[in-house]
Amino acid sequence: MNVPTTLLGLLEPEPSHGYELKRSYDSLFADNGRPLSFGQLYGTLNRLERDGQIEVLDAVPGGGPDRKRFVITGAGVAQVEGWLGAPERPEPMLQATLFVKVVLALLSGRPASAYLDAQRDAHLERMRELTAMRKAGPLSRTLLADYGLFHLEADLRWIDLTAARLDQLRKEISR
Amino acid sequence: MIRVGIHLALRSGREALARLLVTALSVAIGVGLLLSVLAMYHAYRDTIAKPCWQCTATTDANGPLLWSYSEDEFGGRTIDRLDVATLKPDGPVVPGLPAMPSAGQYYASPALAALLRATPADELGDRFPGTMAGTIGAAGLQSPDDLVVVIGHRPAELAASPHTLRTAAIQTAPRGLSTSAFYQFGFALGAVALLVPLLVLIGNATRMAAARREERYAAIRLVGGERSQINVIASVDAVLGALLGALGGIGLYAALRPLLGHIPLLGFRFFDDTITPTVWGFVGTVLAVPAAAAVACLVSLRRVRISPLGVTRRVTPPPPRFWRVLPLLAGLALFTIPLVIAPADGRGTPGFAVLALVLVMTGLMIAGPWLTMMSARLLARWTVGGSSLLAARRLADNPRASFRAVSGLMLAVMVGTTLAALVPAALASQDTTRTSPLRDVLRVGFFVGDQEKPGPGTIPGLPPEKAATLLAKVATIPGAVAVPLYRPARTGQAELPADGPLAGDGGVDVRCSDAHRLPALGACPAGAGAVRMDASAMYTDNLRALNEYLPFIRSDSPVTAEDGSGGQLLSDLLVGVDGPATLERVRTVLSGYRDDIDSFEMPMTFGEVGDVRARLFLEIQRIVTVLAGVTLLVAGCGLAVAISGSLVERKRPFTLMRVTGTGVGTLYRAVLLETVLPLVAATAVAAGVGVTVAYPIARALAPGRHGVVLPHPSYALTVTGGLLVSVAIIAACLPVLGRITATEKARFE
Amino acid sequence: MSILYANDLTKSFGATVALQGASLSLEPGEILAVMGPSGSGKSTLLYCLAGIFTPDDGTVTFGGRRMDSLSDRERTRLRRTAFGFVFQFGQLVPELTAVDNVALPLLLSGKRRTAAYEQARSWFPRLGLTGLEGRRTGELSGGQAQRVAVARALVTGPEVLFADEPTGALDSLTGEMVMDLMVDTVRAEHTSVLLVTHDARVAAHADRQITVRDGQVIDAGARVR
């Protein structure tokens, strides 16, 4: 999760106060990760201001960080555009973890298919949760849930394919 | 549930509605024709069941009636003439008459009355003494065209005639028509020939797109429709089409009805009010046709198992086997062998022949799928290419369905071939009627055999004094040339054979000066005054045979001194006439000599005698043409319905093939092949069977001289034309294929 | 208390063994997903539970009654009154209009026509089908046709809805929409659902899922231990 660039993107349509930014961020993206802490928020905003990607538009007299209204700069827009245009690096992390588990199970003579079945159940359980969530929420939340569902589905397909080819895999790694 | 069925049948969209209409239309054609056949059959039964008062022959010495029945001729039509005298009141009355005519009166049939008004008295009216008292009602007539006259006399006038009998009872039994067996045969043949294609048509119509319908039944089963509910819904669908069709058929019959009255099935028209399928026919049709449709529908549903997941055939039908040809061969053998062994009996056992013929037709239907499969195998072996592969595969997979489409047409061709081969053969023996040199010569015989009149004894000929008066009267008619033939005096009365001159040496004496006036008789040897000639061929009704015996007088004919001047009896009289009016005038004169002429031997020209014989065959030929045409029409409809149905049924695979790049032309050619191939194969076999059936009959009809029978060339044209029409029908169905498989409409739920 | 219970079902088609000892239970109001690869026997299991197939061996109990010993007629009656069906395709009568199709089970049950159509029409707004009542099946989109099928399946108020790959012929967006509407409706009606699918995202709509492999129901928990 690229928090600075996300905040830049939220600032782009209109100038905003820090607490408004946090509220938007949390309601839109928190389900996919963790809610934003105020420390992280203001740290990030300061860094962005220092880098010239945002600037203070105006401030209510009396000072204090949450009295400032921020606006995006030209450099900030360029940063958002660049991030959006560049594809994300595929993250093989989960697959890598599952693969290591399957191989270890096969090498140690434990039931790999039972592990995969259990993993499938866990995946489906999570998919049911996401399905319930996407039905309840506003569209923004639904889309995020869908994203998670498609990823889990991809994992499940990999699990099913692997389960069907465990015998071949066992022969290959024991060679 | 019935209401649900009706609701489903009527609300199921354009395709279902179109199917319903096609079914109804096909059934309507079938029912309309069926009703017409029934109506004609009813008229025929009604007519032959009429009392034959003309046949009265029982004598009663104390009876109230003097009865003298004879037949006369006018313009090629027979006049039934009854001369009658009442001895006592309250005697029986001829049907159709208010009372027996009193002396000096006569009753005439309406047709005769009209003829009397239109004809000079010396050609017709003078034959009937007295004045017309009224017309004869339908009860006494067989046909509105009948020429009948009932003439009243004083008893004394009739008592002297040798033909007169005294009777107490007028016959009420119908005439034992010698031709009725023949007509029964004809009706049976016609009914079978028409009925089978009709049933095929109706069957094809009600089965149309059965597979599409079965899909819908599977869907209904899925939502919990019980098997009985499916049966009801399917039956309602079938019954609705059949009922609409039956009602439409009655409409069609009503449209055809005026034409039926003009069909001279027995050589004369039927009374209009007898031509009806009767109320029971109508009721039966309206009830039986839908009932039959429902039964057929249920039977076809029994063969499939409709589960909620779709339709499965109970069993995959095995390919047809060779045994299917056996019934056909058996039928052919049954039909042919008796005719070959004993040709003379050929026409005598129509019941057996009908049975064999039905077997032949059924055999053709049974053998059809096997033949179709064989031709598909040949096609597969001898051809390459997508279309023929598709067609051969379809034919081999389901030869029954492919054959069903052409079965009606095949029967039509078979029946047509049989009759077309028969009729020319039968007519071949008559074909000289127009060319005989004696065509316009009238012959009348004065020999009356013992059996031909009520009293005992044989009248060998007309006595000289009567003959002289007759000859004098004939001589006054301009254009009439009389040649008297005398019975040789040497052959005494006792030696005369009982059944006429044919059985004896048949010699008659003729004066050369008379014979000279009818050149066709031949020329006398030089210097002869009179010759004795063998004229027995005069009595035949076969002009071809007569011509072969001409001339009667040859150079070696014995010269005789008996030239009729020595009190010889007048045996026969030949009168050449120069036109119809002259002919009728001669007959009018002869009608005064009724007592001396055999009452059933009408004075007719040789041409008329030959025409009578030919007329029957001409009528048959006409009916055959109509029948073959109608059968072809029905079969063509059946073909069109079957093809459209099979196309609609295979809509999905065809569309898929088009989607995957098969050209529509390839599909056209495949469908054309899979239809035309069985059609051509079936037609060839049917024509072969037809000739095989016809050949023995034709040989029996025309023995010896006309051994080789080939259908008339026009028939070959008809069959070719029929085939072309069929191909055209198929081709007309093909655009349907293009439309229903249009790729832009491809859609698979 | 299970509403539908299958014990040790076996079913063969000739030499092909589709089920060998499959057992499951369906609770009232529960949506149960039956997953498994193609040819695993999951559809056969559904057809056996729905009384369309008769198992070679084993028992099916519905509402306390043995299903496998019922006559075809009684099972047909159950299909009409207690079960509803949504298949991948081919379940609607193509020549009929949408409302005709929905009214059909009611008509077959002998309901009066006006009442049947009134009831059928009341389902169209619930499934977002307002205005499509008079369309013929062939004129509907795939998602619309499946929603009509759902209405057709639920119109009789069944206790169990059998759904075999109900979104199998649809794209994922349309499939989600059909599933959402179907699940919402069966929840509102308290109908139990047996949902056969190979699609995990469809199965995720269920309360619980089981997996069928080689004709048997796999008990994942038992084998992990």
UniProtKB/TrEMBL annotation, chain A:
It holds the Pfam family Vir_act_alpha_C. It comes from the Bacteria. InterPro entries: Tscrpt_reg_PadR_C, Tscrpt_reg_PadR_N, WH-like_DNA-bd_sf, WH_DNA-bd_sf. Residues 104-167 form the Transcription regulator PadR C-terminal domain. Residues 7-80 form the Transcription regulator PadR N-terminal domain. This is Helix-turn-helix transcriptional regulator.
UniProtKB/TrEMBL annotation, chain B:
It is found in: Cell membrane. Residues 626-735 form the ABC3 transporter permease C-terminal domain. Its main location: membrane. The chain crosses the membrane at residues 20-44, 181-203, 230-256, 279-301, 322-344, 350-371, 403-427, 623-648, 676-695, 715-737. Keywords: Cell membrane, Membrane, Transmembrane, Transmembrane helix. It is a multi-pass membrane protein. It holds the Pfam family FtsX. Belongs to the ABC-4 integral membrane protein family. This is FtsX-like permease family protein. It comes from Paractinoplanes globisporus.
Automatic annotation (TrEMBL), chain C:
The keyword Ligase does not apply. Keywords: ATP-binding, Nucleotide-binding, Transport. It comes from the Bacteria. The keyword Nucleotide-binding applies. GO terms for molecular function: ATP binding. InterPro entries: AAA+_ATPase (IPR003593), ABC_transporter-like_ATP-bd (IPR003439), ABC_transporter-like_CS (IPR017871), ABC_transpr_LolD-like (IPR015854), MacB-like_ATP-bd (IPR017911), P-loop_NTPase (IPR027417). Residues 4-224 form the ABC transporter domain. This is ABC transporter ATP-binding protein. It comes from Paractinoplanes globisporus. The lineage of its organism: Bacteria, Bacillati, Actinomycetota, Actinomycetes, Micromonosporales.
